[in-house]
Amino acid sequence: MKIIDNVFLVPGVVANPYILVDADGLTVIDTGLPRSERKILAYVASLGKSAQDVKRIIITHADLDHVGGLSALHKVTGARTYASKIEAEAIAAGKPSRQIKSSGFSIQRLVFTLLSPFMKAAPFQVDEILADGQILPVLGGLRVVDTSGHTPGHISLFAPAFEILFCGDSLVTDENGIHGSRSNLTWDDAKAKEAVRKQAGFGARVVCSGHGPVVMDATSKFPL
Ligand SMILES: [Zn+2]
Question: Pairing relation of β-strands 142-146 and 135-136?
């Protein structure tokens, strides 16, 4: 699904993977649950590109629904892989970067508690550690933003040239707009709120979340 000219959402994957198109190749943000690489590669093919055109894979955080397809997608594409230090360590250990709280209910929590024993992400060593403020040569300059809170090393990615924000699970979207990280999945509630405030200040016109629809005209839809 086309979001803007150079950005696509791969449909039918939990959590949402995004494909960014630049002259030098493709960048994938997040890789869905295990086996999602098939849908991602099929979508790449539908754009008239090959697996080898995928040059970068960026992971927002180490939860299973974001890293599940990482190892297999890397194997097929040979892409360079990126994550923050804390999340990279968790990915290398093949587990999430924080404990899930035992209270509350959500579909994501069900995924964790019921499926995790059967659907572990293969331990994987990412190539490059990303730090807050770093700018990647993607979409005219893709800025790495520390949005810890949902997880200890969560990052978002913001492209000022296109006013588009990829927020992973630091923000959740639905038909009513933009919300903060769901509390029962949040590592640190205060930091999660801070991450919302920080991102509200970017003036992003388009918000691409891990869960929920892409929000257009997003500027006025951030929670106060
Ligand atoms: Zn998620």
Answer: antiparallel
